[in-house]
Structure formats: structure tokens, C-alpha cells
Amino acid sequence: MPPEHGPASGCAGFDGGRTRFYATGEPGAASLGVIRLETGTIVVFDHALWHDGEPVTHGMKWVMRTDVL
Questions:
Q1: Distance CA 46, CA 1 (A)
Q2: 5 to each of 35, 44, 47, 59, how far by Cα in Å?
Q3: Which of residues 3 and 35 earns the better pLDDT score?
Q4: What are phi and psi of 35, to 5 degrees?
Q5: How many other β-carbons are positioned within 10 Å of the β-carbon of residue 9?
Q6: Residue 63 domain-assigned?
Q7: How far apart are alpha carbons 56 and 29 in whole angstroms?
Q8: Does residue 66 lie within any of the structural domains?
Q9: 54 to each of 3, 49, 68, 69, how far by Cα in Å?
């Protein structure tokens, strides 16, 4: 895969895809915040926190997820 399409391309290669956090899982719940990570950064949070990802509207977003038990 060419570097312009792989994980090393960074967030400059896509639009959208921010991670959004909510107070509850109910429709219309209050937003707690929105983040857009840059290449090489991470976000660590309790997975019980309600969250979703915005649709990626252009390009490709690469995500790595892991669980710590």
C-alpha cells in the first residue's frame, strides 16, 4: 500500500472522523467533548464512557484499539 494511503500518512489525509463523547447513551444526550487526534497520539478512556466516531467524509482514517484488563 502506498504511504499516502497507509497509517503513516497522518490525519491530513482525511476529513471528519472525530471521536465524540456523551454524558449518557440516550438519544440527544449532552456532549462532553470532541477530539481529533493527530498521527502518533492516543486517547485513553474508560470504555464505559459513551462515545462514537463521526463519519469519515474524505480519505481514510486508521484506528488501533486495545483493551487493558
A1: 33
A2: 22, 25, 29, 8
A3: 35
A4: -130, 150
A5: 17
A6: no
A7: 22
A8: no
A9: 24, 16, 24, 27
Compute the distance between CA of residue 33 and CA of residue 30 in angstroms, rounded to an integer.
9
pLDDT single digits (tens) 20-54: 999 999 999 999 999 998 777 888 999 899 999 99
| Domain membership flag for residue 48 | yes
Inter-residue contact 63 to 16 (CB < 8 Å)? no
Residues in the chain: 69
Residue 53 forms part of a structural domain: yes
Instruction: Name the domain count of the chain.
Output: 1
Domain that holds residue 53: 3-58
